[in-house]
Inverse folding.
C-alpha cells in the first residue's frame, strides 16, 4: 500500500486529501473519503454558524477518522474560526493568505495547520508561521488560485519546506498525477475537481455532467470575479478563480461594466447557498479533461492509489533498462 510520512502526520492511511469546497455541502463526500483512508475536508464559506455546526456534528457521527475544516480570507469569519478550534478537528486548512496569528491559535488548541500556497513567497511565509503541512496549489486548480503551474511550483515549495510535508494540488485527477506529485517531492495530493464529480458530492447533477463532458480548455480563469464574489477581509496574495465558462464568466471578461455587483452578487450567493450556482460560476480545474464519469468517492481513492503504484513501478522499470 502506498504510504508516505504525511500519512503519519495526518493520521490517515493513504496520502490523499479531498479538497474543501467553500460553501457547497460535502459531508457525505468527506465521510466517504475518510472511510476510504484519505483526509476529508469541509468548507465554511457563506454559511451560518448553526449550519456549520450541524455539518461538523454530522461528519463526526459518520466517521471517527481525522478530517479538516477549511477557512479562507474571502472573507475570513472569526466566529466560525473560533468555533472550529472549539470543535477540535484534526486539522484546519487555510487558503489565500498565511495568517501567523491564526496558526498559533490552532496549535494552542492542539489542531494541525494545513496551509495552501500559490507561490514560493507564500510557501516561505507558511514555513515561518509553523505550518504542519503545505499544499502547493498550481494554477490548473479549480476554485480560487494563482497562475504558476503545479509541475513548476511543487518542487520549488518542496525546496523551501525542507522537513515540512508538501502536498500537490491542481490538475491531479488520476493515479498518474499522484505518481508525478510524489516524483516532484510531494508526499501526497489535494484533489478537488475529480471529487466534485463523485456520487456523494452535493452539487447539481448538471454541474457534474458538465465536468464529465468538458475539455481542459473549457476551465478558464474568471476575470473581474470581485464584481460577483465576496470580498477579501484580510490581505491576500493575488489570485483568480477557475471555472467552466458560462454567460456570466464571458460577460465578466467581455463587458464587466455590464455586470452589476448589486444585482449579480446576491443572485450568485443565493444560488450557491442553495447548493447550486453552476449556472453562474461552476468552479472546476483543467483536470476536467481527465474526468470521464461520475464515480463513488471510495473508488476514486482506491484507483488513485492503484494507478499511482502502477505508474511508479512502470517508471522505476526505466532505470537501467
Ligand atoms: C468548487 C471548488 C471550491 C473550492 N473551494 C475551496 C475553499 O473553500 N477553500 C480552499 O482552500 N480551496 C478551495 N478549492 C481549491 C481546492 O482546495 C484545491 O486546491 C483544488 O480543487 C485542486 O485543484 P483541482 O481542482 O485541479 O483538483 C475549491 C475548489 C473547487 C473546485
Amino acid at each position: 500500500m502506498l504510504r508516505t510520512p504525511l500519512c503519519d502526520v495526518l493520521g490517515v492511511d493513504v496520502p490523499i486529501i479531498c479538497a474543501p469546497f467553500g460553501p457547497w455541502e460535502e459531508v457525505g463526500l468527506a465521510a466517504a473519503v475518510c472511510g476510504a483512508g484519505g483526509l476529508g475536508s469541509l468548507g465554511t464559506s457563506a454559511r451560518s454558524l448553526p449550519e456549520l455546526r450541524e455539518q461538523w456534528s454530522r461528519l463526526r457521527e459518520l466517521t471517527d477518522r481525522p478530517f479538516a475544516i477549511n477557512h479562507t480570507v474571502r472573507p475570513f469569519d472569526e466566529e466560525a474560526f473560533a468555533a472550529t478550534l472549539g470543535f477540535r478537528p484534526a486539522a484546519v486548512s487555510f487558503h489565500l493568505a498565511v495568517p501567523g496569528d491564526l496558526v498559533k491559535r490552532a496549535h494552542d488548541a492542539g489542531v494541525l495547520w494545513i496551509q495552501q500556497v500559490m507561490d514560493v513567497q507564500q510557501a516561505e511565509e507558511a514555513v515561518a508561521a509553523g505550518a504542519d503541512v503545505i499544499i502547493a496549489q498550481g494554477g490548473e486548480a479549480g476554485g480560487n488560485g494563482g497562475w504558476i503551474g503545479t509541475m513548476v511550483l511543487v518542487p520549488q515549495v518542496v525546496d523551501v519546506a525542507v522537513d515540512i510535508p508538501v502536498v500537490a494540488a491542481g490538475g491531479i485527477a488520476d493515479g498518474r498525477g499522484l505518481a508525478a506529485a510524489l516524483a516532484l517531492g510531494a508526499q501526497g495530493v489535494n484533489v478537488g475537481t475529480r471529487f466534485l464529480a463523485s456520487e456523494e458530492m452535493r452539487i447539481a447533477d448538471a454541474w457534474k455532467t458538465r465536468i464529465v463532458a468538458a475539455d481542459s480548455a473549457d476551465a478558464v480563469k474568471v476575470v473581474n470575479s470581485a464584481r460577483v464574489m465576496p470580498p477579501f477581509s484580510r490581505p491576500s496574495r493575488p489570485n483568480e478563480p477557475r471555472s467552466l465558462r458560462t454567460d456570466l464568466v464571458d460577460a465578466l471578461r467581455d463587458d464587466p461594466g455590464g455586470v452589476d455587483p448589486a444585482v449579480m452578487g446576491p443572485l450568485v450567493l443565493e444560488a450557491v447557498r442553495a447548493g447550486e450556482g453552476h449556472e453562474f460560476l461552476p468552479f472546476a480545474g483543467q483536470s476536467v479533461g481527465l474526468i470521464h464519469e461520475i464515480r463513488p468517492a471510495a473508488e476514486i481513492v482506491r484507483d488513485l492509489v492503484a494507478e499511482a503504484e502502477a505508474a511508479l513501478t512502470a517508471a522505476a522499470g526505466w532505470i537501467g533498462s
Notes: Residues 215-286 form one domain. The mean pLDDT is 97. The pocket of flavin mononucleotide is lined by residues 19-22, 43, 45, 70, 72, 93, 95, 116, 137, 140-143, 169-172, 190-193, 196, 283-285, 287 (CB under 6 Å). The longest helix spans residues 297-316.
